Amino acid sequence: MCEDPFSSFQEIVVSMLSLRVAVASAPSLKLRLFQPSLRGICSAAVIRKSPPGCVGSVPPAAWLSAVCSHTLSLRRESGGRATGWYDSVADSAPVHLAEQFLVSLQQASSLPWWASIMVGTLAIRTVITLPLAAYQMIIIGKVEALQAEISELAKRLRYEVSVRARERGWTEKQSRFQFQKNLRRLVSELYIRDNCHPFKASVLVWVQLPLWVSLSLALRNLSMEQSDLQAELAAGGALWFADLTSPDSTWILPVCLGLTNLLIVEIFALQRVNPSRVQKFVTNFIRGISVLMIPIAATVPSSMALYWFTSSVVGFSHNLLLRSPAFQKCLRLPSRRSDTPYRDLLTTFVAKYFK
Fold first, then answer.
1. Contacts of 56 (CB under 8 A, 6+ apart)
2. pLDDT computed for residue 54 by the predictor
3. 140: closest CA among 310, 7, 280?
4. What distances in angstroms separate CA 157 from CA 8, 255, 298, one per listed residue?
5. Does the structure show a pLDDT above 60 at 118?
6. DSSP code for 200
């Protein structure tokens, strides 16, 4: 009945990493399926190049009309409508909004593209997903605080059902059915009373996943040869990933991504003192997906790999922040596991892997 943080995290990581595999493994990785989007190019007016036929100073309305006309001709030349589920998602409104956000942020900040991607990731995860993660933690804390009351109600209900079963001659199966039905009703009333239904803790998943997919596909669209910003991203990298439109041939970003994901999984696994067989299986499955993500990240443009790595690092930092007693006090959580969470985490980590 209680949704613990590790189970919730497992659901998020499995969903995210599975989507990463699906998106990164799509046929359009070969740069064959992308078709320029009329809405994506015209809505934001983010293309720095002037469209054909525009010379000198042109009013914004006329410039945008020229861009739209040019894009329409491109779509006719490329075959018209997109085909396949990947094309439909890549050409959807949320992806185009993500494109507009990324380009607007880069133009407003004048940062190089690699820094703009990192800053945008930090901003989105801090402004949107961190509050939702804190809300999830509040809900889970309330649910955990109800466990003592639920246990007491279950004992009383079991006794009352046994008495009623003797009076009415219920079979064991009927008694079990009545107990479970009434216990679900009582628990539901408690959740309503404290406004902490466990399903509310899944809001983070329903927001974080579309954001991640939209930004990933937006970066892929911008890195395609048909994009007018492709040249800027090709020169917008740094260090060993100078070209953000090509995969990281050194595998440094993919390996860093895999190690970060593994670190997140291991830290949350340390919370389980006596994990069940199912929890062990899920943990090992996520470990496998984290390792599998390394070669997958090595096949996508560096802009996507950089976003994935930055998102994982920011998420890891937020998870550590949510463990802070001061932060939990600000959230007014009903209970805290430890006043020294970081020391306890380090001690457990060292004891498990280095002794």
1. none
2. 41
3. 7
4. 29, 53, 57
5. yes
6. G
Q: For the whole model, what pTM was predicted? A: 0.69
Element (H, E) at 305: helix 302-322
Q: Copy the structure tokens of residue 226.
A: 């048909």
Compute the distance between CA of residue 342 and CA of residue 349 in angstroms, rounded to an integer.
10
DSSP string covering 4-27: -HHHHHHHHHHHHHHHHHHHHTSG
Please tell me which of 48-57, 151-160, 198-207 the model is most confident about, judged by mean pLDDT: 151-160
Give the 3-state secondary structure of residue 340. coil
Which residue from 136, 176, 188, 175 is spatially nearest to 1, judged by alpha carbons? 188
Residue 245's contacts (CB-CB under 8 Å, 6 or more residues apart) are: 223, 224, 230, 233, 234, 301, 302, 303
Residue 269 reports pLDDT greater than 50: yes
**238: helix, coil or strand?**
strand
